[in-house]
Write a structure and sequence with these properties.
- By secondary structure, this protein is α+β, with helices and mostly antiparallel strands.
- Helix content is about 35%, strand content about 25%.
- The protein has 2 domains: about 230 residues, Nucleotidyltransferase, domain 5, CATH 3.30.420; about 250 residues, Nucleotidyltransferase, domain 5 (2-Layer Sandwich), CATH 3.30.420.
- An 8-stranded mixed beta sheet has the order 18-19-17-16-20-21-22-23, with helices on both faces.
- Helix 10 packs across helix 17 and helix 15 crosses helix 16.
Length: about 475
Protein backbone atom coordinates (compact mmCIF):
# COMPACT_ATOMS: atom_id res chain seq x y z
CA UNK A 1 0.00 0.00 0.00
CA UNK A 2 1.04 3.57 -0.65
CA UNK A 3 0.30 6.49 1.64
CA UNK A 4 1.38 10.13 1.65
CA UNK A 5 2.04 12.26 4.70
CA UNK A 6 3.33 15.77 5.37
CA UNK A 7 6.07 16.57 7.87
CA UNK A 8 6.61 20.14 9.04
CA UNK A 9 10.08 20.47 10.56
CA UNK A 10 10.94 23.75 12.26
CA UNK A 11 14.58 24.25 13.15
CA UNK A 12 16.40 27.12 14.78
CA UNK A 13 17.83 28.38 11.49
CA UNK A 14 15.39 27.02 8.89
CA UNK A 15 12.16 25.18 8.36
CA UNK A 16 10.93 22.63 5.84
CA UNK A 17 7.64 21.21 4.65
CA UNK A 18 8.19 17.72 3.26
CA UNK A 19 6.06 15.11 1.54
CA UNK A 20 6.70 11.52 2.54
CA UNK A 21 5.49 8.65 0.38
CA UNK A 22 5.51 5.26 2.07
CA UNK A 23 5.41 2.60 -0.62
CA UNK A 24 5.66 -0.92 0.72
CA UNK A 25 8.74 -1.00 2.91
CA UNK A 26 10.48 2.15 1.72
CA UNK A 27 9.93 5.83 2.39
CA UNK A 28 10.64 8.54 -0.16
CA UNK A 29 11.02 12.07 1.19
CA UNK A 30 10.62 15.14 -0.98
CA UNK A 31 11.16 18.59 0.46
CA UNK A 32 8.51 20.86 -1.01
CA UNK A 33 9.36 24.13 0.70
CA UNK A 34 12.33 25.54 2.62
CA UNK A 35 12.32 28.81 4.48
CA UNK A 36 14.67 30.66 6.84
CA UNK A 37 14.18 31.01 10.57
CA UNK A 38 15.99 32.87 13.28
CA UNK A 39 15.72 35.20 16.20
CA UNK A 40 14.30 38.71 15.91
CA UNK A 41 15.85 41.19 18.40
CA UNK A 42 13.48 43.74 19.94
CA UNK A 43 14.42 46.07 22.82
CA UNK A 44 17.14 43.81 24.18
CA UNK A 45 15.15 40.59 23.89
CA UNK A 46 15.02 37.88 21.24
CA UNK A 47 11.84 36.45 19.74
CA UNK A 48 10.73 34.00 17.07
CA UNK A 49 8.65 35.25 14.14
CA UNK A 50 5.97 32.65 14.81
CA UNK A 51 3.41 34.23 12.47
CA UNK A 52 5.98 34.34 9.69
CA UNK A 53 6.63 30.64 10.25
CA UNK A 54 2.89 29.94 10.08
CA UNK A 55 2.69 31.79 6.77
CA UNK A 56 5.48 29.61 5.36
CA UNK A 57 3.81 26.46 6.68
CA UNK A 58 0.58 27.36 4.90
CA UNK A 59 2.50 27.91 1.68
CA UNK A 60 4.11 24.49 2.01
CA UNK A 61 0.74 22.89 2.61
CA UNK A 62 -0.60 24.53 -0.55
CA UNK A 63 2.24 22.91 -2.51
CA UNK A 64 1.49 19.55 -0.91
CA UNK A 65 -2.16 19.80 -1.91
CA UNK A 66 -1.05 19.70 -5.56
CA UNK A 67 0.48 16.23 -5.10
CA UNK A 68 -2.71 14.24 -4.70
CA UNK A 69 -4.26 12.54 -1.69
CA UNK A 70 -2.61 13.25 1.65
CA UNK A 71 -3.41 11.15 4.71
CA UNK A 72 -1.98 13.24 7.53
CA UNK A 73 0.23 16.09 8.65
CA UNK A 74 2.38 16.57 11.78
CA UNK A 75 4.76 19.20 13.16
CA UNK A 76 8.05 18.88 15.02
CA UNK A 77 10.37 21.64 16.20
CA UNK A 78 13.09 22.54 18.64
CA UNK A 79 12.15 22.16 22.30
CA UNK A 80 11.62 24.45 25.34
CA UNK A 81 9.94 27.48 23.69
CA UNK A 82 6.20 28.11 23.95
CA UNK A 83 3.28 30.44 23.33
CA UNK A 84 0.81 31.71 25.92
CA UNK A 85 -2.84 31.86 24.83
CA UNK A 86 -5.74 33.72 26.36
CA UNK A 87 -9.16 32.21 27.04
CA UNK A 88 -10.14 32.77 23.41
CA UNK A 89 -7.11 30.93 22.05
CA UNK A 90 -5.29 34.07 20.93
CA UNK A 91 -1.57 34.64 21.49
CA UNK A 92 -0.92 37.02 24.38
CA UNK A 93 2.55 37.99 23.19
CA UNK A 94 5.22 36.83 20.81
CA UNK A 95 7.14 33.61 21.35
CA UNK A 96 10.41 34.19 23.21
CA UNK A 97 13.65 32.75 21.81
CA UNK A 98 15.58 30.43 24.11
CA UNK A 99 18.75 32.46 23.57
CA UNK A 100 17.12 35.66 24.82
CA UNK A 101 19.00 37.71 27.40
CA UNK A 102 15.84 37.74 29.55
CA UNK A 103 17.00 34.39 30.95
CA UNK A 104 20.32 35.65 32.30
CA UNK A 105 20.68 34.50 35.90
CA UNK A 106 17.20 32.95 36.13
CA UNK A 107 18.32 29.32 36.32
CA UNK A 108 20.74 30.13 39.12
CA UNK A 109 18.00 31.85 41.08
CA UNK A 110 15.55 28.97 40.68
CA UNK A 111 18.15 26.34 41.56
CA UNK A 112 19.03 28.23 44.73
CA UNK A 113 15.36 28.47 45.66
CA UNK A 114 14.27 24.90 44.93
CA UNK A 115 17.58 22.95 45.12
CA UNK A 116 19.00 20.72 42.42
CA UNK A 117 17.91 17.58 44.25
CA UNK A 118 14.24 18.61 44.20
CA UNK A 119 14.25 19.59 40.54
CA UNK A 120 16.23 16.63 39.22
CA UNK A 121 14.56 13.93 41.29
CA UNK A 122 11.17 15.08 39.98
CA UNK A 123 12.14 15.45 36.32
CA UNK A 124 15.49 13.81 35.54
CA UNK A 125 16.25 16.70 33.19
CA UNK A 126 19.60 18.30 32.45
CA UNK A 127 20.12 21.78 33.87
CA UNK A 128 20.23 24.20 30.95
CA UNK A 129 19.58 27.94 31.31
CA UNK A 130 16.88 27.97 28.62
CA UNK A 131 14.69 25.13 29.93
CA UNK A 132 11.01 26.01 29.95
CA UNK A 133 10.95 25.97 33.76
CA UNK A 134 13.30 28.97 33.85
CA UNK A 135 11.52 30.69 30.99
CA UNK A 136 8.27 30.60 32.95
CA UNK A 137 10.10 31.83 36.04
CA UNK A 138 11.26 34.79 33.91
CA UNK A 139 7.71 35.68 32.78
CA UNK A 140 6.10 38.77 34.24
CA UNK A 141 3.41 37.66 36.75
CA UNK A 142 0.82 39.75 34.89
CA UNK A 143 1.42 37.73 31.72
CA UNK A 144 0.92 34.46 33.55
CA UNK A 145 -2.19 35.79 35.28
CA UNK A 146 -3.77 36.66 31.92
CA UNK A 147 -2.78 33.37 30.28
CA UNK A 148 -5.20 30.48 29.92
CA UNK A 149 -3.11 27.86 28.05
CA UNK A 150 0.57 27.18 27.41
CA UNK A 151 1.46 25.37 24.20
CA UNK A 152 4.94 24.35 23.09
CA UNK A 153 5.83 25.60 19.59
CA UNK A 154 4.81 22.48 17.62
CA UNK A 155 1.70 22.08 19.75
CA UNK A 156 0.80 25.69 18.99
CA UNK A 157 0.93 24.95 15.27
CA UNK A 158 -1.15 21.81 15.74
CA UNK A 159 -3.69 23.99 17.56
CA UNK A 160 -3.79 26.37 14.61
CA UNK A 161 -4.10 23.43 12.21
CA UNK A 162 -6.94 21.55 13.89
CA UNK A 163 -8.00 23.26 17.12
CA UNK A 164 -6.74 20.57 19.53
CA UNK A 165 -4.78 21.93 22.51
CA UNK A 166 -2.48 19.19 23.83
CA UNK A 167 1.19 18.74 24.61
CA UNK A 168 2.93 15.76 23.04
CA UNK A 169 4.90 13.65 25.53
CA UNK A 170 8.40 14.05 24.08
CA UNK A 171 8.19 17.84 24.13
CA UNK A 172 6.56 17.88 27.57
CA UNK A 173 9.54 15.94 28.90
CA UNK A 174 11.97 18.66 27.76
CA UNK A 175 10.41 21.40 29.90
CA UNK A 176 11.96 20.39 33.25
CA UNK A 177 8.54 20.30 34.87
CA UNK A 178 7.35 16.92 33.59
CA UNK A 179 7.61 13.78 35.74
CA UNK A 180 8.62 11.07 33.28
CA UNK A 181 8.14 8.30 35.81
CA UNK A 182 4.54 9.30 36.62
CA UNK A 183 3.83 10.49 33.10
CA UNK A 184 2.35 13.79 34.30
CA UNK A 185 3.32 17.39 34.93
CA UNK A 186 5.53 17.95 38.00
CA UNK A 187 3.05 20.36 39.50
CA UNK A 188 4.89 20.68 42.79
CA UNK A 189 7.78 22.46 41.06
CA UNK A 190 5.42 24.95 39.45
CA UNK A 191 3.56 25.49 42.70
CA UNK A 192 6.84 26.26 44.45
CA UNK A 193 7.54 28.97 41.87
CA UNK A 194 3.95 30.29 41.92
CA UNK A 195 3.48 29.31 38.28
CA UNK A 196 -0.15 28.25 37.63
CA UNK A 197 -0.20 24.59 36.58
CA UNK A 198 -3.71 25.16 35.21
CA UNK A 199 -1.98 26.56 32.11
CA UNK A 200 -0.81 23.11 31.10
CA UNK A 201 -2.88 21.09 28.61
CA UNK A 202 -3.36 17.30 28.62
CA UNK A 203 -0.43 15.06 27.61
CA UNK A 204 -0.84 13.17 24.34
CA UNK A 205 1.23 10.30 22.91
CA UNK A 206 3.04 10.36 19.57
CA UNK A 207 0.74 8.76 17.03
CA UNK A 208 -2.40 10.39 18.44
CA UNK A 209 -4.96 11.51 15.87
CA UNK A 210 -6.00 15.07 16.75
CA UNK A 211 -8.68 15.38 14.08
CA UNK A 212 -9.09 16.95 10.65
CA UNK A 213 -7.67 20.24 9.50
CA UNK A 214 -9.90 23.16 10.43
CA UNK A 215 -12.17 24.32 7.59
CA UNK A 216 -10.33 27.64 7.37
CA UNK A 217 -6.99 25.82 6.96
CA UNK A 218 -8.49 23.50 4.38
CA UNK A 219 -9.79 26.52 2.46
CA UNK A 220 -6.43 28.29 2.60
CA UNK A 221 -4.41 25.26 1.50
CA UNK A 222 -6.70 23.13 -0.61
CA UNK A 223 -6.13 20.08 1.59
CA UNK A 224 -9.34 18.15 2.25
CA UNK A 225 -9.92 15.30 4.66
CA UNK A 226 -6.38 15.46 6.03
CA UNK A 227 -5.84 14.30 9.62
CA UNK A 228 -3.47 15.95 12.07
CA UNK A 229 -1.41 13.14 13.64
CA UNK A 230 1.15 13.81 16.36
CA UNK A 231 4.71 12.80 15.56
CA UNK A 232 7.27 12.95 18.32
CA UNK A 233 7.12 16.75 18.28
CA UNK A 234 10.56 17.31 19.81
CA UNK A 235 12.82 17.18 16.77
CA UNK A 236 15.43 15.07 18.55
CA UNK A 237 12.80 12.51 19.50
CA UNK A 238 11.74 12.29 15.85
CA UNK A 239 15.37 11.94 14.78
CA UNK A 240 16.03 9.17 17.30
CA UNK A 241 12.90 7.35 16.13
CA UNK A 242 14.61 7.14 12.72
CA UNK A 243 18.00 5.90 13.96
CA UNK A 244 18.62 2.89 11.68
CA UNK A 245 19.81 0.66 14.51
CA UNK A 246 19.29 -3.04 15.07
CA UNK A 247 19.44 -4.83 18.40
CA UNK A 248 21.05 -3.18 21.40
CA UNK A 249 24.45 -1.75 22.44
CA UNK A 250 24.22 1.35 20.29
CA UNK A 251 24.18 5.07 20.91
CA UNK A 252 23.15 8.00 18.76
CA UNK A 253 24.32 11.50 18.04
CA UNK A 254 21.71 13.77 16.51
CA UNK A 255 24.20 16.12 14.92
CA UNK A 256 23.29 19.63 13.89
CA UNK A 257 23.36 23.01 15.58
CA UNK A 258 23.36 20.93 18.76
CA UNK A 259 24.83 17.46 19.23
CA UNK A 260 22.41 15.33 21.21
CA UNK A 261 24.43 12.37 22.46
CA UNK A 262 22.44 9.55 24.01
CA UNK A 263 21.14 6.03 24.32
CA UNK A 264 17.65 4.57 24.37
CA UNK A 265 16.50 2.98 27.63
CA UNK A 266 13.25 1.30 28.71
CA UNK A 267 12.93 3.51 31.81
CA UNK A 268 14.41 6.79 33.05
CA UNK A 269 17.72 6.58 34.90
CA UNK A 270 17.57 9.18 37.65
CA UNK A 271 20.42 8.92 40.15
CA UNK A 272 23.00 11.00 41.95
CA UNK A 273 25.48 10.10 39.22
CA UNK A 274 23.23 11.16 36.32
CA UNK A 275 22.50 14.42 38.16
CA UNK A 276 26.20 14.96 38.76
CA UNK A 277 26.91 14.37 35.07
CA UNK A 278 23.96 16.62 34.12
CA UNK A 279 22.36 13.94 31.95
CA UNK A 280 18.79 14.29 30.79
CA UNK A 281 15.93 11.80 30.56
CA UNK A 282 13.49 12.67 27.79
CA UNK A 283 10.59 10.75 26.32
CA UNK A 284 10.90 8.85 23.07
CA UNK A 285 8.28 7.05 21.04
CA UNK A 286 6.45 3.93 22.19
CA UNK A 287 7.21 4.53 25.86
CA UNK A 288 11.01 4.62 25.49
CA UNK A 289 13.34 7.05 27.26
CA UNK A 290 16.21 8.92 25.69
CA UNK A 291 19.06 9.25 28.20
CA UNK A 292 21.24 11.93 26.69
CA UNK A 293 23.28 15.05 27.06
CA UNK A 294 23.02 18.26 25.07
CA UNK A 295 26.49 18.96 23.71
CA UNK A 296 27.32 21.98 21.63
CA UNK A 297 27.16 21.02 17.97
CA UNK A 298 27.96 22.86 14.77
CA UNK A 299 26.70 26.14 16.23
CA UNK A 300 30.24 27.41 16.82
CA UNK A 301 31.31 26.73 13.22
CA UNK A 302 28.04 28.18 11.93
CA UNK A 303 28.59 31.39 13.88
CA UNK A 304 32.22 31.58 12.75
CA UNK A 305 31.13 31.24 9.16
CA UNK A 306 28.77 34.17 9.57
CA UNK A 307 32.06 36.09 9.52
CA UNK A 308 33.95 34.05 6.90
CA UNK A 309 31.11 33.51 4.40
CA UNK A 310 32.74 30.35 2.99
CA UNK A 311 31.20 27.23 1.51
CA UNK A 312 30.89 24.72 4.32
CA UNK A 313 32.01 21.83 2.10
CA UNK A 314 35.22 23.70 1.23
CA UNK A 315 35.77 24.65 4.86
CA UNK A 316 35.51 21.06 6.07
CA UNK A 317 37.70 19.80 3.23
CA UNK A 318 40.42 22.30 4.17
CA UNK A 319 40.13 21.37 7.84
CA UNK A 320 40.62 17.69 6.94
CA UNK A 321 44.08 18.54 5.62
CA UNK A 322 45.21 20.01 8.96
CA UNK A 323 46.64 17.93 11.81
CA UNK A 324 44.89 17.88 15.18
CA UNK A 325 45.86 20.75 17.41
CA UNK A 326 44.32 22.80 20.22
CA UNK A 327 41.04 21.94 21.93
CA UNK A 328 38.31 24.06 23.47
CA UNK A 329 35.45 23.17 25.79
CA UNK A 330 32.56 23.59 23.33
CA UNK A 331 30.02 23.50 26.17
CA UNK A 332 31.48 26.52 27.91
CA UNK A 333 28.88 29.27 28.32
CA UNK A 334 30.98 31.79 26.39
CA UNK A 335 30.23 29.89 23.15
CA UNK A 336 26.44 29.90 23.64
CA UNK A 337 25.45 33.46 22.58
CA UNK A 338 25.45 34.43 18.91
CA UNK A 339 27.88 37.02 17.66
CA UNK A 340 30.38 37.99 15.00
CA UNK A 341 33.25 37.53 17.47
CA UNK A 342 32.95 33.73 17.60
CA UNK A 343 36.33 33.12 15.87
CA UNK A 344 37.94 35.45 18.40
CA UNK A 345 36.28 33.56 21.27
CA UNK A 346 37.82 30.30 20.04
CA UNK A 347 41.22 31.95 19.73
CA UNK A 348 40.94 33.56 23.17
CA UNK A 349 40.20 30.18 24.77
CA UNK A 350 43.27 28.61 23.15
CA UNK A 351 45.44 31.55 24.14
CA UNK A 352 44.21 31.52 27.75
CA UNK A 353 44.89 27.78 28.07
CA UNK A 354 48.44 28.01 26.73
CA UNK A 355 47.75 26.24 23.45
CA UNK A 356 48.69 27.14 19.91
CA UNK A 357 46.22 29.71 18.62
CA UNK A 358 44.48 28.73 15.36
CA UNK A 359 44.61 31.52 12.81
CA UNK A 360 42.92 30.53 9.57
CA UNK A 361 39.27 29.50 9.13
CA UNK A 362 40.40 25.95 8.41
CA UNK A 363 42.52 25.82 11.58
CA UNK A 364 39.70 27.19 13.73
CA UNK A 365 37.24 24.75 12.18
CA UNK A 366 39.58 21.82 12.81
CA UNK A 367 39.95 22.93 16.42
CA UNK A 368 36.18 23.05 16.88
CA UNK A 369 35.51 19.69 15.20
CA UNK A 370 38.27 17.99 17.21
CA UNK A 371 36.76 19.46 20.35
CA UNK A 372 33.23 18.34 19.47
CA UNK A 373 34.42 14.81 18.76
CA UNK A 374 36.35 14.66 22.03
CA UNK A 375 33.35 15.92 23.99
CA UNK A 376 31.02 13.40 22.35
CA UNK A 377 33.45 10.61 23.20
CA UNK A 378 33.51 11.67 26.85
CA UNK A 379 29.71 11.65 27.03
CA UNK A 380 29.52 8.21 25.39
CA UNK A 381 31.81 6.81 28.07
CA UNK A 382 29.68 8.39 30.81
CA UNK A 383 26.48 6.97 29.31
CA UNK A 384 28.01 3.53 29.22
CA UNK A 385 29.03 3.80 32.88
CA UNK A 386 25.74 5.08 34.28
CA UNK A 387 23.58 2.65 32.31
CA UNK A 388 25.73 -0.46 32.42
CA UNK A 389 24.91 -0.79 28.73
CA UNK A 390 27.94 -1.37 26.48
CA UNK A 391 28.11 0.91 23.43
CA UNK A 392 29.68 -0.68 20.37
CA UNK A 393 28.17 1.37 17.54
CA UNK A 394 27.44 5.09 17.37
CA UNK A 395 24.78 6.24 14.91
CA UNK A 396 25.21 9.81 13.69
CA UNK A 397 22.06 11.25 12.13
CA UNK A 398 21.10 14.71 10.92
CA UNK A 399 23.09 17.32 9.07
CA UNK A 400 26.37 16.47 10.77
CA UNK A 401 26.23 12.95 9.34
CA UNK A 402 27.33 14.47 6.01
CA UNK A 403 30.63 15.74 7.45
CA UNK A 404 33.09 12.91 6.85
CA UNK A 405 35.81 14.56 8.92
CA UNK A 406 33.57 14.93 11.99
CA UNK A 407 32.30 11.34 11.75
CA UNK A 408 35.84 9.98 11.50
CA UNK A 409 36.99 12.13 14.41
CA UNK A 410 34.13 10.77 16.55
CA UNK A 411 35.13 7.21 15.66
CA UNK A 412 38.77 7.95 16.48
CA UNK A 413 38.07 9.78 19.74
CA UNK A 414 35.55 7.22 21.02
CA UNK A 415 37.22 4.08 19.71
CA UNK A 416 33.83 2.92 18.39
CA UNK A 417 32.40 2.25 14.97
CA UNK A 418 30.31 5.09 13.58
CA UNK A 419 27.39 4.66 11.19
CA UNK A 420 26.38 7.91 9.49
CA UNK A 421 22.90 8.62 8.13
CA UNK A 422 20.22 9.38 7.40
CA UNK A 423 20.63 13.12 6.98
CA UNK A 424 16.86 13.62 7.09
CA UNK A 425 16.32 11.54 10.24
CA UNK A 426 13.98 14.09 11.80
CA UNK A 427 11.71 14.21 8.78
CA UNK A 428 11.73 10.43 8.43
CA UNK A 429 10.92 9.90 12.10
CA UNK A 430 8.08 12.40 11.88
CA UNK A 431 6.63 10.83 8.73
CA UNK A 432 6.95 7.22 9.84
CA UNK A 433 5.33 7.80 13.23
CA UNK A 434 2.39 9.26 11.31
CA UNK A 435 2.33 6.51 8.71
CA UNK A 436 2.84 3.57 11.07
CA UNK A 437 0.78 4.81 13.98
CA UNK A 438 -1.40 1.94 15.12
CA UNK A 439 -4.91 2.02 16.43
CA UNK A 440 -3.53 2.86 19.86
CA UNK A 441 -1.22 5.87 20.12
CA UNK A 442 2.20 5.21 21.63
CA UNK A 443 2.29 1.58 20.47
CA UNK A 444 4.45 1.94 17.36
CA UNK A 445 6.45 -1.04 16.14
CA UNK A 446 9.84 0.64 16.55
CA UNK A 447 11.76 -2.25 14.94
CA UNK A 448 9.54 -2.04 11.84
CA UNK A 449 9.94 1.72 11.69
CA UNK A 450 13.73 1.48 11.82
CA UNK A 451 13.73 -1.30 9.22
CA UNK A 452 12.02 1.10 6.81
CA UNK A 453 14.73 3.67 7.54
CA UNK A 454 17.50 1.15 6.79
CA UNK A 455 15.82 0.06 3.57
CA UNK A 456 15.31 3.65 2.44
CA UNK A 457 18.79 5.10 2.93
CA UNK A 458 22.42 4.62 2.05
CA UNK A 459 24.47 4.52 5.25
CA UNK A 460 28.19 4.96 5.77
CA UNK A 461 30.58 3.20 8.15
CA UNK A 462 33.61 4.77 9.82
CA UNK A 463 36.06 2.73 11.89
CA UNK A 464 38.63 4.15 14.33
CA UNK A 465 41.87 4.95 12.52
CA UNK A 466 45.34 5.73 13.84
CA UNK A 467 45.31 8.89 11.74
CA UNK A 468 42.49 11.38 12.27
CA UNK A 469 42.97 12.63 8.71
CA UNK A 470 41.34 9.50 7.26
CA UNK A 471 37.86 10.64 6.32
CA UNK A 472 36.77 8.31 3.52
CA UNK A 473 33.74 6.30 4.68
CA UNK A 474 32.86 2.76 3.70
CA UNK A 475 29.43 2.62 2.11
CA UNK A 476 26.99 0.25 3.76
CA UNK A 477 23.31 -0.35 3.23
CA UNK A 478 22.66 -1.54 6.77
CA UNK A 479 24.05 -0.81 10.21
CA UNK A 480 25.77 -3.54 12.14
Amino acid sequence: MTSRHIAIDLGASSGRVALGTLDGGTLHVEILHRFPNGGVPVRGRLYWDILGLWREVLHGLKLAAQRGDIASVGVNSWAVDYGLLDEHGDLLNNVHHYRSARLNGVMERVRAELTDEMIYSATGIQFLPFNTLYQLAAEHPDHLARAHTLLMVPDLLHFWLCGAAVTERSNASSTQFFDLVRGDWARELLDALHIPAALLPPIAQAGSDLGELLPEVADLTGLRGVRVVLPATHDTASAVAAVPAEGTNWAYISSGTWSLVGIETPQPIISARTRQENLTNEAGIAGTTRLLKNVMGLWIVQQCNEVWKLEFADLYAQAAGIASGPLIDPDDARFLPPGADMPARVQAWCRATGQAVPQTPAEITRCVLDSLAQRCAEVLTTLEEVSGQPIRVVHVVGGGSQIALLNQLIADASGRAVVAGPVEATLMGNLLVQALSGQEAGQQDVAALRRVVRDSNELYHYTPQPSTNQTTPIKASHAD
